[in-house]
Design brief:
The protein is of the alpha/beta class and 361 residues long. The chain folds into three domains: 129 residues, 3-Layer(aba) Sandwich (Rossmann fold); 77 residues; 98 residues, no CATH class. Helix content is 38%, strand content 10%. The chain is built from 15 helices and seven strands. A five-stranded parallel β-sheet has the order 2-3-4-1-5, sandwiched between helices. The chain has a two-stranded antiparallel ribbon with strand order 6-7. Helix 7 runs parallel beside helix 9 and helix 13 crosses helix 15. The longest helix is centred in the C-terminal third of the chain and has 14 residues. The two termini are 44 Å apart.
Length: 361
């Protein structure tokens, strides 16, 4: 069965309407909600599943986050349906199957393809950081909530990120309200957290006992105390660690290198830094954000920009002999400063250290 939502969904009316249109269309067999870790993919999928339930004979959900191997997916599905053969159980019935956290068992996409081929009226709604890359897949990229560009309390009341933060705070701190005294701190907190729903909910837990200005000064250490949250959602650190745990060692080194660029990373600049140290280039496919922590990076023109929450997370202490040593980055920065024309705006480097700091806003 599909778990019932236990909280309201905020600021997602357009996304929900779009996903519902897709899953209600008999011609659409596979829908994947993609987005960064903590952006609300699971919550949107649950809401869509429940609202679309009347169109289906059965709606079933399966959380894949506990699985480590793609080959474990068929067995997990069989156990959750209490049947040795899910394809036979589903048959030609009109089913909606919600598969959550698919990105950590991405190679299991072939099992989904086989299930879709054997069950002609089955629709699969998946959540994943990246597409399943199957024929007929329809993607719905999910962005963070919009953040406020004003500190006026009347304007803030209509902003999605502010609405979520205030709603969740009222739930744990009755009487809390947006006022002229706290409006600026609330707006700054939403901007600092990039409108990321998970981060806003963790901030709301802190607002139970602290003022918005105090929480704003402590955003690096946000964590929750809700006992029924998945382990990976108990803190921003765990969300980022969960999102990057499948990276290979070279990908992790590259992920650390990306952290040196405070304003975003261009492929040419990323490749130039290790080139100064070892005279070699990263493979073009290696720096792909789908491999190097896409849960923390979003497209920004021709470059990729790190989210503020991601830059708050401590990473392992860099290896000074690696391609992203401070010496190489400083040398690269000097070369860009002296060679770049006045009109150009190269990526801004930050010498690597053990802490990812939030961008100033």
């Amino acid at each position: 069965m599909l778990p019932a939502p236990v909280s309201s969904i905020v600021g997602r009316s357009d996304d929900l309407a779009a996903v519902l249109r897709l899953v209600r269309d008999p011609a659409v067999r596979l829908v994947t909600i993609t987005g960064t870790g903590g952006v609300g993919k699971t919550r949107l999928a649950l809401e869509a599943g429940w609202q679309a339930a009347s169109r289906y004979e059965a709606v079933h959900g399966l959380d894949l986050s506990a699985l480590r191997e793609p080959d474990d997916v068929p067995q997990a599905l069989a156990e959750s349906l209490r049947t040795p053969d899910p394809a036979t159980t589903i048959g030609d019935g009109r089913w909606l199957l919600v598969l959550d956290s698919f990105d950590h068992v991405a190679a299991a996409a072939t099992h989904v393809a086989a299930l879709l081929a054997g069950c002609p009226r089955l629709t699969v709604l998946a959540t994943s950081r990246s597409p399943l890359r199957l024929r007929g897949e329809h993607l719905w990229p999910l962005a963070p909530l919009s953040t406020p560009d004003s500190d006026d309390p009347e304007v803030l009341a209509g902003n999605a990120a502010v609405e979520l933060l205030v709603q969740r705070t009222v739930a744990v701190r009755p009487g809390f309200a947006l006022t002229g005294d706290n409006a600026a701190a609330v707006a700054a907190l939403c901007r600092r957290l990039d409108g990321l729903p998970l981060a806003l909910e963790l901030a709301a837990a802190r607002l139970r006992t602290q003022a918005p200005s105090q929480v704003l000064a402590q955003v690096r250490d946000l964590h929750g105390d809700t006992v029924d949250l998945p382990d990976r959602h108990l803190s921003l650190r765990r969300t980022v660690e969960w999102s990057t745990r499948g990276l290979t060692d070279p990908d992790r080194r590259l992920f650390g290198l990306l952290g040196a660029f405070a304003g975003g990373a261009d492929p040419v600049d990323v490749e130039a830094v290790p080139g100064r140290l070892r005279r070699r280039r990263w493979p073009r496919t290696a720096w792909s954000p789908s491999r190097t922590g896409s849960a923390c990076w979003t497209p920004s023109g021709r470059s990729w920009k790190p989210s503020s929450p991601a830059r708050m997370i401590e990473t392992s202490t860099p290896d000074t002999s690696s391609a992203w040593s401070a010496t190489a980055i400083r040398g690269w920065a000097r070369s860009r400063t002296t060679s770049a024309p006045p009109s150009s705006t190269p990526s801004t480097p930050r010498p690597p250290c053990c802490t990812w700091r939030p961008c100033a806003r």
